[in-house]
Specification:
Shape: elongated
Strand order of the largest sheet: 3-2-1-5-8
Structural class: alpha+beta
CATH superfamily of the largest domain: Cupredoxins -  blue copper proteins
Radius of gyration: 24 Å
GO molecular function: copper ion binding; cytochrome-c oxidase activity; oxidoreductase activity
CATH architecture of the largest domain: Sandwich
Pfam families: COX2, COX2_TM
Catalytic activity: 4 Fe(II)-[cytochrome c] + O2 + 8 H(+)(in) = 4 Fe(III)-[cytochrome c] + 2 H2O + 4 H(+)(out)
Subcellular location: Mitochondrion inner membrane
Largest sheet: 5 strands, mixed
Distance between the termini: 22 Å
Protein name: Cytochrome c oxidase subunit 2
């Protein structure tokens, strides 16, 4: 989960989130290099004492500053495209979890088991235990085995919602009348927290998600 004054991404709990972390670091390195280069050029420009009154155009430099950014963008676009395809790939899931967003709670169904469905509401602050997490704990958690390919089907019963767990790198829009799906694999045990990430009404901030990853 996110910790106090944490400016970075959460620790990954799935291979997909690891790839997103790597891509974030890769892109950030390129942006830092560009920022330093542009800052250096602007700094030197302020102290430049020379000028050329007869300079009308420079085709060579125009070609250079057109081609170089295109090459840099390729180094960002290709890894991004690879991750987009990885996120959409479904690899023979062992378990399917159905998720339905409501105002303002989540309901879940385990499709591989008979009559296993439940609603998940946020635990109010006045009912919270001493070691509980305010605005994050729920009365019924999702429990799934780690190192198992899980498919999640997401929809909504009323308005737009978004089922999100940052540590897993999962964010799926819950749209009424539409069934969206994604998959993930948890590679470590623990509790992973998320929240609705689409403004859905007055209590949008009070429909958290808690997923418990247990050794299978």
């Amino acid at each position: 989960m996110a910790t106090w004054s944490n400016l970075g991404l959460q620790d990954s709990a799935s291979p997909l989130m690891e790839q997103l972390n790597f891509f974030h670091d890769h892109t950030l390195l390129i942006l830092i290099m560009i920022t330093i280069l542009v800052g250096y050029l602007m700094f030197m420009l302020f102290f430049n004492q020379f000028t050329n009154r007869f300079l009308l155009h420079g085709q060579t430099i125009e070609i250079i500053w057109t081609i170089l950014p295109a090459i840099v963008l390729m180094f960002i676009a290709l890894p991004s495209l690879r991750i987009l395809y990885l996120l959409d790939e479904i690899n023979s899931p062992a378990i399917t979890l159905k998720t339905i967003g409501h105002q303002w709670y989540w309901s879940y169904e385990y499709s591989d088991f008979l009559n296993l469905e439940f609603d998940s509401y946020m635990v109010p602050t006045n009912e919270l235990e001493t070691n509980g997490f305010r605005l994050l704990d729920v009365d019924n958690r999702i429990v799934l085995p780690m190192n198992t390919q899980v498919r999640i089907l997401v929809t909504a019963a009323d308005v737009l919602h978004s089922w999100t767990i940052p540590a897993l790198g999962v964010k799926v829009d819950a749209t009424p009348g539409r069934l969206n799906q994604t998959n993930f694999l948890m590679n470590r045990p623990g509790l992973f927290f998320g929240q609705c990430s689409e403004i859905c009404g007055a209590n949008h901030s009070f429909m958290p998600i808690v997923l418990e990853s247990s050794p299978s």
